[in-house]
Design goal:
The chain is elongated, with a radius of gyration of 28 Å. By secondary structure, it is α+β, with helices and mostly antiparallel strands. Helix 1 runs antiparallel to helix 2. It has two domains: 100 residues, Protein of unknown function (DUF541), domain 1 (Translation Initiation Factor IF3); 103 residues, Protein of unknown function (DUF541), domain 2 (Alpha-Beta Plaits), CATH 3.30.70.2970. The strands form two sheets. The chain has a four-stranded mixed beta sheet with strand order 6-8-1-7. A four-stranded antiparallel beta sheet has the order 3-4-2-5, covered by helices on one side.
Length: 223
C-alpha cells in the first residue's frame, strides 16, 4: 500500500506531524417525547386471541386520537400459539394463544406524557416499555458540534505546536470519532444553546447532550 504524501514530497509516516483529538457538545432542550406502550393477552382459542387483540388495539388508538398533536405508529404485532409438555410422551401440544402489540406515540408537549400513559393503561395497555426525550433538530445540532470539535482540535494542536517552537501547517488527515452513549471525559467545547427545558408538575426534561468528536493530523512547520 502506497504511503500518503505530505506537502514537500515527504510521506505522512516520515513528515513532521501532530495528531490531536477534538470534542464538542451542544446542550439542547428536547421537544419530542416518545412513549412506547403495549399489551400482551392470552386466550384459549385463536379467534379469541385475534378478536381480543383487535379490540384492545382499537381502544388504544382511540385514546391516542384524543390528543391534539401526536404521531402514532404500530411498533410490534404478534399472534403466537402457546405450548406445553415439551419433553413428555406424545410431544408438545397447543394450550392457548398469546397476542401482543405495541404502539409508539410521539408527543410535542411534556405535560401530555403522564396523561397519555394513564389513558393507555386505562384503555387496555398492560406495559409501558419506555419513554424517551428527543430533539427534532438533532442532526443540525450534531453538525454544529462537529464544527466546534474541529475548532477544538485546531486550537489544541496550535497550542502544542507553539510550545514546541513550531507553527501549525495544513491538515493532512481528519476522521470523525464514532458516536458513543456516554462521554468519559469533558468535551473541549460545550455550547448551551438558548432552548428552554420544559417542566411539568412532576417531570423536568433538562437538556440533551449532542456530542461530536474528530481526530486530525496536522503538518508541523518551523516557527
Amino acid at each position: 500500500m502506497a504511503e500518503a504524501m505530505a506537502p514537500g514530497g515527504l510521506t505522512l509516516a516520515t513528515s513532521r506531524t501532530i495528531a490531536v483529538n477534538g470534542d464538542a457538545e451542544i446542550m439542547t432542550a428536547p421537544d419530542r417525547f416518545v412513549v412506547t406502550v403495549g399489551f400482551d393477552l392470552q386466550a384459549n382459542t385463536l379467534n379469541e386471541a385475534r378478536d381480543g387483540s383487535k379490540q384492545r388495539a382499537a381502544a388504544l388508538l382511540a385514546a391516542a386520537a384524543k390528543l391534539p398533536t401526536c404521531e402514532v405508529s404500530t411498533d410490534q404485532l404478534s399472534l403466537q400459539p402457546r405450548y406445553e409438555r415439551y419433553n413428555e410422551p406424545g410431544g408438545q401440544r397447543i394450550v392457548g394463544y398469546t397476542a401482543s402489540r405495541s404502539l409508539t406515540i410521539t408527543l410535542h408537549a411534556l405535560d401530555e406524557v403522564e396523561g397519555l400513559m394513564f389513558d393507555m393503561l386505562a384503555a387496555g395497555a398492560n406495559r409501558v416499555d419506555r419513554v424517551t426525550f428527543q430533539s427534532s433538530v438533532m442532526l443540525e445540532k450534531r453538525s454544529e458540534a462537529r464544527l466546534l470539535a474541529i475548532e477544538a482540535a485546531r486550537a489544541k494542536a496550535a497550542g502544542m505546536a507553539a510550545a514546541l517552537g513550531q507553527t501549525l501547517g495544513e491538515p493532512l488527515k481528519i476522521e470523525e470519532a464514532a458516536a458513543t452513549g456516554w462521554q468519559a471525559q469533558p468535551a473541549n467545547y460545550t455550547l448551551d444553546n438558548a432552548t428552554t427545558p420544559q417542566q411539568s408538575e412532576t417531570v423536568a426534561t433538562g437538556k440533551i447532550r449532542v456530542h461530536a468528536g474528530v481526530s486530525v493530523v496536522f503538518a508541523l512547520r518551523p516557527a
